[in-house]
């Protein structure tokens, strides 16, 4: 029997992040998503008002209170939106090989030209530079640069319409990652009490440091990898981030499609090794926006992310505007659970397990993982103040659930994003190590993680409830009530 099947409370280790929108805007709809398996909710600040998002936060918190299940909330910042201007007739037809001009003239465009209202972008466009428009459906190459314009030749694409976005690969775009709108949205989101801020358009470590300073510890910082420039400095960027999202939409436009799978695997591996959560996002079950079932390729895509060892997988339009939001979460849940039940999955986790022991806390956590394996423990229990002990345990990708007890509700909510962690807000922790063992056994039994007579492995620190002091490992048994 797969170890996950020992507990009815832990059917899945990989977490599911669901985006809220018009298709999931009521308390009843959000409750249905939680029941289907959603662990974390994304609020897309590219759309909707602050009032709308605050209402969503209030509904999530009400559901959390009713169910006793900590739920994470991610506020996703829009970031800079680079778009062309408008056309006289709303759209134009293009032909391969034709000449086309981009300039600062705000006059509506035609078949020969259109406004590019970003003078700072025109400055970096040199001859032979590629521009991708409309998510890569149109590709042009610069042939000439003049004052306030560039001339280009159409290499791919047959049509272009108003306000389409554009991407310029292989260059750092000279615009800040946090716009004026983002800063207002970030302040509002923090006031709402969200758990994570997702930062878009990250290119440099300086971008991350700026966001980190603005957040000032009030939420975790989740950086979105969507620009190739960020890949070039990822080691340094990762040092400042609290979690990483592989946003394969824009990233897949700016790097060759054949590079996306290897980049995904590398980023998951590096982020895991750093002990930080990593999310795979974009177009995972895209066809379920309109259809009740995904394609086989989409199911395989989700499974691949799970086999790679991601902490979480994300649904975007599927739950925000799709016709089958609950079915999409149910399908994601089924794919994740089926993948995790494959013997090859745990073999893969063993192969990818980082061998990192940097301090006593790491040593205790690693030892707890192996002891749990040796005694076939029902689960692993961690007491934590900051969440670091639970993150260390999640890094190991154990086959059994991680039950994390914390007296800080905000920590429990943030940990809802981490692999295998079942966080419990537990303000009644005792102050000695024999007390917490009995207390943990009671919660383990009540939550369905173990039955009477089964063992669990527990880690904690002395002095108790002091962050960063994990130094004790104990094997405990669930006794009769």
Your description of this structure?
By secondary structure, this protein is of the alpha/beta class. The protein folds into three domains: 11-79 and 177-346, Phosphoenolpyruvate-binding domains (TIM Barrel), CATH 3.20.20.60; 91-167, Beta Barrel (M1 Pyruvate Kinase, Domain 3), CATH 2.40.33.10; 353-477, Pyruvate Kinase, Chain: A, domain 1, CATH 3.40.1380.20. Helices cover 36% and strands 22% of the residues. The protein contains 17 helices and 21 strands. Strands 1-2-3-12-13-14-15-16 form an eight-stranded parallel barrel, surrounded by seven helices. It has a six-stranded mixed β-sheet with strand order 6-5-9-8-7-11, covered by helices on one side. Helix 10 crosses helix 12. The longest helix has 18 residues, at 50-67. The two termini are 27 Å apart. The model is unreliable at 1-10 (pLDDT under 50).
CATH class term of the largest domain: Alpha Beta
Average pLDDT taken over every residue = 92
| CATH topology type of the largest domain | TIM Barrel
> How many strands in all?
21
Estimate the strand proportion. Answer: 15-25%
Q: Biggest sheet, strands in spatial order?
A: 1-2-3-12-13-14-15-16
Task: Kindly name the structural category.
Answer: alpha/beta
At CATH level 2, the architecture of the largest domain is: Alpha-Beta Barrel
Cα Rg: 24 Å
Q: By CATH's scheme, which homologous superfamily of the largest domain applies?
A: Phosphoenolpyruvate-binding domains
Question: How many helical stretches?
Answer: 17
The percent of residues in helical segments reads: 25-40%
List the domain count as a whole number: 3
Residue stretches low in confidence (pLDDT < 50, at least 5 long) are 1-10
The largest sheet is:
8 strands, parallel, barrel
């Amino acid at each position: 029997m797969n170890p996950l099947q020992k507990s009815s409370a832990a059917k899945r280790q990989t977490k599911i992040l669901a985006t809220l929108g018009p298709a999931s805007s009521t308390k009843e709809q959000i409750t249905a998503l939680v029941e289907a398996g959603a662990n974390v909710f994304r609020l897309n600040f590219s759309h909707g008002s602050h009032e709308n998002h605050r209402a969503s936060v209030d509904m999530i918190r009400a559901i959390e209170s009713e169910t006793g299940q900590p739920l994470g909330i991610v506020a996703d910042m829009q970031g800079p939106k680079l778009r062309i201007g408008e056309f006289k007739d709303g759209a134009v037809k293009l032909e391969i090989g034709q000449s086309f001009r981009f300039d600062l003239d705000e006059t509506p465009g035609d078949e020969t030209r259109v406004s590019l209202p970003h003078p700072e972008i025109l400055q970096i466009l040199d001859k032979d530079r590629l521009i991708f428009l409309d998510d890569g459906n149109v590709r042009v190459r610069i042939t000439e640069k003049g004052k306030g314009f560039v001339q280009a030749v159409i290499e791919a694409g047959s049509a272009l319409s108003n306000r389409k976005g554009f991407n310029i690969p292989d260059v750092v775009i000279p615009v800040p990652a946090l716009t004026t709108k983002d800063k207002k949205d970030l302040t509002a989101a923090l006031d709402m009490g969200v758990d994570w801020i997702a930062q878009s358009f990250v290119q440099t470590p300086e971008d991350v440091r700026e966001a980190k300073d603005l957040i000032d510890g009030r939420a975790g910082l989740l950086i979105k990898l969507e620009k190739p420039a960020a890949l070039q400095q990822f080691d340094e960027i990762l040092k400042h981030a609290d979690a990483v999202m592989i946003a394969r939409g824009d990233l897949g436009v700016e790097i060759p499609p054949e590079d996306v799978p290897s980049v995904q695997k590398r980023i998951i591996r590096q982020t895991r090794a750093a002990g930080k959560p990593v999310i795979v996002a974009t177009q995972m079950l895209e066809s379920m926006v309109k259809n009740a079932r995904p394609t086989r390729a989409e199911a395989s895509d989700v499974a691949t992310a799970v086999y790679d060892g991601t902490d979480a997988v994300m649904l975007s339009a599927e739950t925000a505007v799709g016709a089958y939001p609950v079915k999409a979460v149910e399908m994601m849940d089924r794919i994740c659970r089926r993948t995790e039940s494959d013997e090859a999955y745990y073999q893969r986790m063993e192969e990818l397990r980082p061998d990192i022991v940097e301090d006593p806390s790491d040593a205790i956590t690693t030892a707890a993982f192996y002891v749990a394996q040796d005694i076939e423990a029902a689960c692993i229990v961690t007491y934590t103040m900051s969440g670091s002990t639970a993150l260390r345990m999640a890094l190991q990708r154990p086959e059994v659930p991680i039950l994390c007890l914390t007296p800080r509700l905000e920590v429990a909510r943030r940990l809802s994003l981490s692999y295998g962690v079942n966080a419990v807000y537990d303000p009644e922790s005792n102050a000695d190590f024999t007390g917490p063992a009995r207390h943990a056994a009671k919660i383990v039994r009540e939550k369905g993680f173990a039955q009477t007579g089964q063992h669990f492995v527990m880690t904690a620190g002395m002095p108790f409830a002091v962050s960063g002091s994990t130094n004790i490992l104990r094997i405990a048994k669930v006794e009769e009530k």
